[in-house]
Amino acid sequence: MDCSKLAENGTPELGMEFNSKEDAYKFYNKYAFKMGFSVRKDYLNKDKDGVTTSRRYSCCKESVKRKYEGDVMPKRTRAPTKTGCGAKMVIVLFKGTMKYRVHDLVLEHNHELHIAQCAHMMPSQRKVSVAQGFQAEISEDAGLSLKQSHELIGTEAGGMGNVGYTRDDLKRYLRTRWERSLKYGEAGSMLNYFQEQTLENPSFFHAVQLDCEEQITNIFWADAGMLIDYNFFGDVVTFDTTYKTNKEYRPLGVFVGFNQYRQIVIFGAALMYDETIDSFKWVFGTFLEAMCGKHPSTILTDQDHAMAAALSIVMPETFHGLCTFHIRRNFMKHLGNHYKENSDLPYMFGACMYEFEEVEQFNRVWEAIVKKHNLETNEWLSGLYKIRDKWARCMMKERWTAGMRSTQLSESLNAAIKNHLKLDHDLVQFFRHFNQVVDEKRHNELIAEYEMRQKLPMVGLRQNTYACACIRDVFTNRICCIPK
After folding, report:
1. Under 8 Å CB-to-CB from 14, ≥6 apart: which residues?
2. Locate the MULE transposase domain: which residues (predicted)?
3. Has this prediction a pTM greater than 0.70?
């Protein structure tokens, strides 16, 4: 019996012939789908030339579960699925025709068969197709979870029963893809990724720092768009680090600025081994190398001493400003015990930071703060006063900051990054998802460009309703009068 008769009779019979063992498996698996059992590829025999001479396809419930022979019984055991079913189809290669013929056949099962509605759950019927796998990869790169990706494909297919695989199958497929992408090791795969980016755009810049054991410690990269943006908008830069973006728990540092629409632009990023002076020196130095030696006029950071020391060495001519948000947070940390109901301490401190434009007025109010609240011995406040030129408005009048006084740009970007990244991401996954964040910010710039050309400009005037001696508390948003 040849293959042309198989479509007319869906039940296997002795003497049937197939052109290949794959054709035999497809036919038997199709029959299994109709009947309600799953097929397992059992033993095969090959000749000295490696040609398969015989193969057996069995019911997945063949044999029985072996008894546990260990000394300690496991806490959890899987429910048995084997019943010793003898259903099978054995094919043998006949040299004369070079076709596979059904040599042995058992159709009876000793167990209950699955209903048609559950047939798609049987192992031999589940397979992630090339198109489905490609769609799952795109969904993962876009930041969708495994559950969301599976539900999306199920919706497009008209129900989970039409998908052709389970969520566990999709998980295994993506794991295989991940293992394939890391076949050169995580470091080698990362370098391959950088090489691909360089081939795509020769302007892509990347650098890695190695320790004495030739292990990668710090990584910096910037694509062509980042280099162009820095050339136009790199006068004022904020730099901040964040954690929990990758499974190595490496701190991620991002150089950020404003574009012409006062939107976030990214100038470069670094995965750091630690936050020491040496690491920051390498990151800042590599950043300048990527930008062809162009120094920013101003860089804003938090009150990290290692950053400050590294900046004073690498960028001595760049003005280093401190983030007012971190100063306010440290204010509550170090002076919270002085903050009482109706106290004017936060108002006066906020005025020193944001309001006063004259140095004399700043010094007068600062002395009043120290004396009134007995803060002469407070080390944090004394240290902050020594570096007042980095945060007080009256000391920064000659500095160009583009209206930025904090690293809130970096904080906002860090929040967006964490929406796309997960702790279990390896380095290659991390870079792919980081690019999603960069693309999102660049798309926002295109939206702003369209809105600017589409809509007419509007000029708004705001009247100052407060006297010059009244300021707004930066902590509680209340109005308070400051003595002149």
Report:
1. 102, 103, 104, 105
2. 236-329
3. no
